[in-house]
């Protein structure tokens, strides 16, 4: 199989501001691919285009060999694409476990009327979802906060909840926007181990981050600067690349 | 359908359209300056017209005094609405819905108060130029209706000038577009909102005194006026004074057309359907650009 | 899964209070005047209609002022179905619910894409349209003259003809609906609804079909409103367009807001207030509509959680032990 995700010549403008200028790259299946770039480079905008929050002015997104540029957010996530947000978006009033149950909503089959009358299949499905949520909660060490509204957790923990929720429906591609910001050094270490474990289980990850430490888990990195890919290669190659250094350090 | 009948209904539609436009103007002023939909706008007009009626007809004082005090009453109510309802809601971090709900509550309170003191009867105020008519292509038009159109247009131009040229007008806009930025510039954002609501109240009161000679003043008139004014305002882009009048005229003409082609009973059905259709067909054009979702 | 002793204790209390409440409920009519029971019957009808509005607002963030329209459709379906078409009573009731649901779906699909105040005003516009149609479609509704002679509901030869009897019909319906709505709230669907209320962007990523779920809940709410309207028609046996004006839509919304939109049983409190208060306030003269409006304003500003929110937060404080700290590590 070729790539799991292809970004093809994507350009985007907000009014007069050209944020992305013909960005193209592929994400290989089974890889952890990184996307780095200075503030305002257009990384989050690209994520919004990949996940369906924005339609690019020009260009296409191909996911699992199918052009998905015009498909909705939910349709993409049903196809196996999950993302997190730069500012963590947990369901604040829901407990951690309910957050995870909501995360795999698309796997459910029962409808509103069945739930209204409390039919047995609804209960069965709920029990299954809970069980699965509990498994993931254990894997992400969130046990002590299971019954606590996610909005009451500190930001770092909210990120873990968001990540755990994204993993609930076993996505084929997981896109993470700055997952390590607000995390302590030990938490970053845990995050890296978690990502490597998920990757070993076959999940492909696309990672946006400033954090060069976190980037060590990647096998391939693309550097985005002012809406253009200026370099691609291993993290080591990026560190050596004069263009990347210039973009980051301005020297 | 004869030509006269057509002209007649177009004229009626035009007049009504300016009425809706005036209400929409108040809604646009308040939305522009405070990001709140004021569901009391029609009831502010009710207050204006009731005050004008009390002074000019019940007390028999000069008409012009009634007009002026009617407008002022609208402004004062707008001020009170901010102080008694909007400000406490904002303090408790009310949502978009809570602002709408409190102003809806205010609308019912006004309507119930008028019901209590005026009963279910309806009243008519004498217009400018009395009941004099002018001929337009064989069809008749009230002189007052012409005044309504002239004054509304004047108000729109005045508002344009106010927002574009005066310091306070600009401060009001700044306070609503970027409250934090305005605060750092030393603009008193809370006070600007109060001014905005008072200004919306003045426009509402003015709408009331101008409308009262054309339609019956009655305790229930506020809500429907609000809705039609809202339709006018969103048709015109929700923040634009000129747009509100323009939207009102379109709504009035469509209604007039519905009256001659369907039946007068269905006038409101047509207007409300149009309102819903506008909201669905152009939801983004109304707010300008879309809010940022992701990232 | 283990249940903490706190949760167990809270559950035991909830059951005890519910049981005690039911005993009081069952005994109440024996001690009350006909007029008071009549008010309680209306409180039951309004609880049913208000439940739909409350759930929509609290769980989906949809302000619906269209409920008076669906209430009217239910009433006219019951009236026209039984008097003009001679249909059996349940057929009329179900027809009303189906028609209401269909209209809600047809209108909801475009309208529910709107947000916030747009949506609220769109539903208000719908209520106005419904009211005008009730007035104009005289062949169906009797216009201002209304429809009389609507038969009473009878079950196994027992006719629910008096307020006393109807009390024992309407309240079990209301309780059943409270139970159903609670089941819905705690189901996967309910979790999805609350999720999209908290963070719509993340809910979309989780694959929650936001608009379609909202439409379904709107349809459900319309059907429930229609049921209330049908019961109302069979209770009073004469209906006219006055019962389905905008002020009815507003009382339903008031019920939801006063009762607390996040609290399902709170709707009962809201409905009791809205039906009983005018009766007691009317001693003060015609001032009661004003006080009503002021009550809405005060509730929105000072009691955003409504009666239900107030009770449940107090309740939680009384029953819950100390929580594990949100920040502490394992
Ligand atoms: N909705 C929007 N409207 C207008 N401009 C926007 C919008 N969203 C982003 N931008 C602009 O686009 C540019 C790229 O933003 P983006 O958030 O994609 O950058 P980023 O690479 O994620 O930066 P950061 O590292 O700060 O997260 C910025 O200049 C930003 O101001
Ligand atoms: Mg970013």
TrEMBL record, chain A:
Alphabetical list of InterPro entries matching this protein: AAA+_ATPase, ABC_AA/LPS_Transport, ABC_transporter-like_ATP-bd, P-loop_NTPase
Superkingdom of origin organism: Bacteria
Entry's Gene Ontology molecular function annotations: ATP binding; ATP hydrolysis activity
Record-level GO cellular component terms: plasma membrane
Domain ABC transporter: residue ranges: 5-251
CDD domains: ABC_Mj1267_LivG_branched
Pfam families, sorted: ABC_tran
Key words of the record: ATP-binding, Nucleotide-binding, Transport
SUPFAM superfamilies, per the entry: P-loop containing nucleoside triphosphate hydrolases
This protein's name: Amino acid/amide ABC transporter ATP-binding protein 1 (HAAT family)
Species name: Enterovirga rhinocerotis
Organism ancestry: Bacteria, Pseudomonadati, Pseudomonadota, Alphaproteobacteria, Hyphomicrobiales
TrEMBL record, chain B:
GO terms (BP aspect): amino acid transport
Major localization class: membrane
One Pfam family matching this protein: BPD_transp_2
Localization annotation: Cell membrane
Keyword Membrane among record annotations: yes
GO MF annotations in UniProt: transmembrane transporter activity
Keywords, alphabetical: Amino-acid transport, Cell membrane, Membrane, Transmembrane, Transmembrane helix, Transport
Name by which UniProt lists this protein: Amino acid/amide ABC transporter membrane protein 1 (HAAT family)
UniProtKB/TrEMBL annotation, chain C:
Gene Ontology, cellular component aspect: plasma membrane
A Pfam family reported for this protein in Swiss-Prot or TrEMBL: BPD_transp_2
Membrane topology (UniProt): Multi-pass membrane protein
Main location class: membrane
Single GO molecular function: branched-chain amino acid transmembrane transporter activity
Keywords recorded for this protein, A-Z: Cell membrane, Membrane, Transmembrane, Transmembrane helix
TM annotation in the entry: 12-33, 39-57, 69-87, 93-111, 118-135, 166-187, 217-237, 249-277, 289-311
Species, as recorded: Enterovirga rhinocerotis
Stored InterPro entries: ABC_transp_permease (IPR001851), LivM-like (IPR043428)
Name recorded for this polypeptide: Amino acid/amide ABC transporter membrane protein 2 (HAAT family)
Domain of life where this protein originates: Bacteria
Keyword Phosphoprotein appears in the UniProt entry: no
Keyword Membrane: yes
Location of this chain's protein in the cell: Cell membrane
